[in-house]
Every structure is written in C-alpha cells, then in structure tokens.
C-alpha cells in the first residue's frame, strides 16, 4: 500500500518559527511543553492531526531521552521528514541552551546565584499551576472527558492512566514497561493483529574569568561519555534524568557540589524550553563553553536518532487498527505517568501557604482567561518570589 501524501497546511518556516518561540518562551517543563504542542498545533492551528500527535507522544515516551524534545522532533518529521525533524529539534533546544550558558557565565563570575532560589520560590509554584492545567487538558483530549459516561466507556484506558500515575508517584520515575504492556493489552483486546488470530511464527540514542574556555580534553571525554549515557538510557520525561545526573555529576565524578547541582536544576526550571537543558549549565560549570556544548550534544543526539530512525514506520503504519490500538493504550499510560509526575513535582515545590496560593492563582487564571499567557505569569511569579524573600530578610 502506498503512503498517501497530502500538502501540509503550513510551511516548514512557520513550523520552525513556532518551535523557536516555544524554545525561548515555553515554561513549565515536559508536561507543559507537550501540552502547548497539542493546544497550538493540533487544536488551534490544526497543522498536526490527533493521530499524528499520539504517534509522536507514544514514540517519544517509548524511546530514551527528553520527552518534549523528542515529540518536537517527531512533529517536525511528520510533513517535512528529516530536514523538518532536524530544524525543529535545533530551534527548540538552542534558545534555552544559550540562556543557560549565559547564566553559567554569571554564576562563575559572581560565585553563585542566591537570587535564583528567591526567583524559583515564586516561579516553581507558578510552574506547578501551569503543568496541572496542561496535564488536565492533555488527559481530556487523549483519553476522555471527566464525566461518568465517558470514564465508563473508556474504563480500560482510565485503568492504564491510574496505574501509571500511581506507580510514578510511588517510584518517582516513569516505568517504560508499563507503557508497553498497556499498549499490548489494548491492542490484543481492541484490534488483535492477524498473526495473533491465526497461529504462525512471529518475526520477532573576560571569557577566561568566567570560565568560558576553561576545560581539559580528558574531562571533555568523560562529559561526552556520561551525558551520552544520560541521553541514551534514561527513559521518561526530562525530570527523569535529574536523579541520574545527580548520581554522576555529584556522587561519582564530584564535578559539582550538592548546592551547585540544586542551582543547576533551578536554572532549568526558571528558563524556558526542555528541562534537560540543565545539562548545558552543568557542562559549562565543569568545562566552560566546550563542556556545555559537548554535554548538550551528547544528551540530545541519541534522542534525535531514536526519534528520526523509527519515525517513518510510525508515520506509515500508525493508522493500522492494531497499531492505533497499541498507541492508544500507550498514550493512556503515558498521560497517567505525566499526571503522576505533576503530583511528585507539586509535593516537592509547594511547601507553604504563599507557594500554594501562587499555584492556585495560576490555575484559576489559565482556566478563566486565554488573554494572559504563561510567560507573563512566570514573570509575575518571579517578582512575587523576590519580593517575598526580601520581606522575609527584614
């Protein structure tokens, strides 16, 4: 069967511009970013179909590496193949990469950033509000509405959702095996493949003062190897990579202190784009700009390859009934895992009444109005965080 080609409703330039904007203004981490892509590209602009989006989300979650970046790469591939995937991936990641490099320069120049924790106090709470709303909307679109009739009709998908959410909350990491099992169960129950019905044999990736060029080749080699492992073997959203990075950067190699590592994660949360871009900040602190570049390339290259190489098969066979059922099952578990990740983040971030109020206010604003955008909320939360900490010092 030949693949049916259609003329896309957008140009490659328009899509690249969208991902560039998402890269410099998309706050909230992986849960929020995948929600923005669905809202903007599927619902509002209708550039990407619901099926294409689900295929990308399933592939991004099955493959190791950062979720949001992989989904962006896949959506770039849908109509513009490898060129689209490459350009969308680059324009999505580069803005936040350069931001964390600049922050890394300031960090080395001033010997730490105490104000960063004050900003993160407010921003972190606002981010929780943003990702809760994003998770809610994504769940409604991917599984069903939150009413008795819809939940009863799609009870199996909701079961996958709940199991994945609970496991994520308990283990504080996303289990890829659950996604695969959910996909297989749903496929065999809803649309079993022909080979399953008939018995047969199955066929079974100043500059010197601020450390800009301060590096050693031996260290760069260690950075390349460690961050390649991070990109190639860590499954789940961008948040899943944080414990892995801590084990290597702080415990194994001793490149950063505990305090510096916390600052690195804070940098990732207060800058737009994928959370995994914290690897650029860490790389800069360890070995200047070369370290930042090597760390970012080593982390994102495997996820690019793991997305682009299987993309033709997902794109070509995604409409097959059995494959579609498989993807629907995976998607339900993936969205459940993302919802579980939201709860984990909220527990870690909401520690007092002011942060709870900031998160609640963010949710109400996003539900009640479409005029106020996320960057404005993030800026307001940052100023509130600074003001609160300054008042606390008096």
What structural keywords apply?
mainly alpha, 17 helices, globular, 394 residues
Number of contiguous helices: 17
The chain-level structural class is: mainly alpha
Order of helices and strands: HHHHHHHHHHHHHHHHH
What's the alpha carbon Rg, rounded to whole Å?
21 Å
Taking the alpha carbons of the first and last residues, their distance comes to: 72 Å
Tally of structural domains: 1
Average pLDDT rating: 79
The beta-strand count equals 0
Give the overall shape. Answer: globular
- Which parts are unreliable, with pLDDT below 50 for 5 consecutive residues or more? 199-206
Structural summary, described in words:
The protein has one domain (12-204, 303-393). It has helices at 12-25, 29-44, 50-62, 67-110, 114-142, 148-153, 155-171, 176-190, 194-197, 217-233, 241-252, 258-270, 278-308, 311-317, 321-349, 353-368, 374-393. The radius of gyration is 21 Å and the shape is globular. The chain is mostly helical and 394 residues long. Residues 199-206 have low confidence and may be disordered.
